[in-house]
Design goal:
The protein is α/β, with parallel strands linked by helices. The chain has five helices and four strands.
Length: 116
């Protein structure tokens, strides 16, 4: 999907970001709401507290986290389709707070969206 990207919320907002959607359940530390320039804060699509706490951003748990979070995401088909529909008319930036750009829930979310 060419109209969707992942971006850390801590990076400066840019015009090229398009529609800026925070996909974390918790507000990222140190980020002022005005400075985030969000179009949407989508808490519902974020991993449940149970899965998020279990994962704890540990690399050796990422494969199992991916499986569990994907199962959760598939229960939100309507919301996934809404996000995918947004990408047909504009660029969408899925924003996340995790430090590791390769091992986080936004990576899983993007993968699920591309497979719909």
């Amino acid at each position: 999907m060419k109209n969707i990207q992942l971006k850390r919320i801590y990076e400066e907002p840019e015009a090229e970001d398009g529609y800026r959607m925070l996909v974390d359940r918790l507000w990222p530390r140190g980020v002022k709401k005005e400075a985030a320039m969000l179009d949407e804060w989508n808490k519902d699509i974020a991993p449940s507290a149970e899965i998020r706490k279990w994962f704890d951003h540990k690399e050796d748990r990422f494969a199992e986290f991916t499986k569990r979070y994907t199962e959760e995401l598939l229960l939100h088909e309507k919301e996934l389709n809404r996000i995918k529909k947004l990408t047909k008319t504009k660029k969408v930036s899925l924003l996340y707070g995790a430090k590791n750009p390769g091992i986080n829930h936004a990576v899983v979310l993007l993968n699920v969206l591309t497979q719909l």
